[in-house]
Design goal:
It catalyses: dTDP-4-dehydro-6-deoxy-alpha-D-glucose = dTDP-4-dehydro-beta-L-rhamnose. Homodimer. The structure is a single chain. By secondary structure, the chain is mostly beta strands. Helix content is about 10%, strand content about 40%. The longest helix is centred in the first third of the chain and has 7 residues, at about 30-40. The two termini are about 20 Å apart. Bound molecules: dtdp-4-keto-L-rhamnose (TDO).
Length: about 200
């Protein structure tokens, strides 16, 4: 597994070694010890999967304390542009985002720690999106930020008129009015100390 930091060092890209042969392919999609080496102890409790057509944009989403979630995300089929926004007030990269193309050819994955808002847009005809979360879904703590917030300024890579949103996402608050985490509370080294059991 090749692991590289993005422009926001707490957000990591994992690229597995894929073994192809006449039958198809094989790769290890998750190894706890690899995540522990690079992030710290993570206890995933929920796996999710969604399927969407071209232009579907899900996000930007996060859950408020005490149900904050880290996510390890990848695409099982198709291509998406995946985005993580640092919403930890006081962080050196507060308000900044990283956008990484995830696809089912390289099987690359993105680690999005607690303290970030997350979203993706589908760039292929369809995409199946799969991810692990380290906290349960908590609808009462569900929160979001508007996908086209001018202060965040994400280039989603497709024309605005092709973007399809849920009613909820079309009405998410703008960044300046949204819930923010505190960097001190949600520093990755604090949430996931590497030497923990
Ligand atoms: C996220 C979630 C939704 N649901 C239900 C609620 C709702 O009826 C239906 C669809 O929910 P949503 O519209 O919120 O689904 P979706 O827009 O796909 O939400 C997801 O977006 C991506 C970007 C994320 O980062 C995820 O954490 C999650 O927020 O599924 C669950 O039962 N469990 C879950 O964990």
């Amino acid at each position: 597994m090749q692991v590289t930091a993005t422009a926001i060092p707490d957000v990591l890209v994992f690229v597995p070694k894929v073994y192809g042969d006449g039958r198809g392919y094989f790769f290890e999609s998750f190894r706890k010890e690899v995540l522990k080496e690079h992030v710290g102890q993570v206890d995933f409790v929920q796996d999710n999967e969604s399927k969407s057509g071209f232009g579907v944009l899900r996000g930007l989403h996060f859950q408020k304390p005490p149900f904050t979630q880290s996510k390890l995300v990848h695409v099982t089929d198709g291509v998406v542009l995946d985005v993580a926004v640092d919403i930890r007030e006081g962080s050196p990269s507060y308000g900044e985002h990283v956008a990484v193309k995830l696809d089912s050819e390289t099987h690359n994955m993105l680690w999005i720690p607690q303290g970030f808002a997350h979203g993706f847009v589908v760039l292929s005809d369809e995409a199946v999106f799969s991810y692990k979360c380290d906290n349960y879904y908590a609808p009462d703590h569900d929160a979001g930020i508007r996908w086209n917030d001018p202060d965040i300024g994400i280039d989603w890579g497709i024309p605005q008129e092709r973007i399809q949103l849920s009613e909820k996402d079309a009405r998410q608050p703008f960044f300046k009015d949204a819930f923010h985490f505190s960097y001190d509370e949600f520093k990755q080294e604090k949430v996931y100390p590497r030497n923990s059991a």
